[in-house]
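A brief tutorial aside. Many learners find it easier to grasp structure tokens once they have seen a single protein encoded end to end. The record that follows does exactly this for Putative RDD family membrane protein YckC. Read the sequence first, then the structure, and try to relate runs of similar tokens to stretches of the chain.
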Amino acid sequence: MPQNPTNRPGDIAPSRYPGERLGLPESGPRSVGRVGRRIAAIAIDWAIASLLSFAFFRYDSWATIAIFAALQIVFIPTLGGSIGHRAVGMRVVAVRGGWVGVWRPIVRTLLLCVVIPALVWDSDQRGFHDKIAGTVLIRS
């Protein structure tokens, strides 16, 4: 990787756009999903979980979180993303390519349910939950 203008050993030049260091395009399909789409996706997923919780558990907060987690864990490896992700044109992929597997959605979702990791992002706009799971949220 190129060094930054200060030429200090170990320093890496900043990315010009989110996803550049991951080899993703700046815009269009396969580019990193941006904040607006992410917020819309999580709002859709939370609304679905809330409706199901209301219908079956009288809107119990723990049931809502459990349903939200189940939707993430089931749909990321099967559909490539949650219902919200797919509705806004995004999908979750493994950074190293291939199938995302089963463990990545579980780890990603458990961290997402803690909330704090989702609020800590890097220059590629990957939340801590995505970094730990080795995933990235991209546009379809």
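Self-check: The two ends are 28 Å apart (CA to CA). If you spotted this yourself, you are ready for the next section.
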